[in-house]
Design goal:
The protein is an alpha+beta fold. It has a single domain (5-132), classed as STM4215-like (2-Layer Sandwich). Helices cover 24% and strands 38% of the residues. A 5-stranded mixed sheet has the order 1-2-3-5-4. The longest helix is centred in the middle third of the chain and has 14 residues, at 76-89. The chain starts with a helix and ends in a 7-residue tail after the last strand.
Length: 139
Amino acid sequence: MATALWPLQQAVYAKLTADTTLMGLVSGVYDEVPEDVEFPYVTLGSITELPDDAHDRQGLTAQVVLHIWSKYHGYREAAEILAAMDQVLDRKPLAVDGFTDISIAQAQHQSMRDSDPTIRHINVQYRVWMTVQTEEKES
């Protein structure tokens, strides 16, 4: 069974960082956050994948978690970043190497307080459905 963990992370990162509106709202999108990063920013979280086969094809359903981090007093800034992320990802085309029939949709958003009372955090989850790309058989 193919895994989408790395190609899916690459596709989501590329889609987010290519959007000028989103990138105008954040200092960056990170897998590994630099120590001196400025708020607000987005981090790539976990990806969970489960088999989701059709009768004749292998497929996957994945849950992609992203995090928005802000030091704005209240959730307004983080919510504006979330709205921009949804404009980029929710029900939009996504190209993932090795997969076809890809669909992505918002699954859940959760605002949270960090242990540091100056930080606001939104946990963002998207669900992705995809089919493993197969090679065409020659006749």
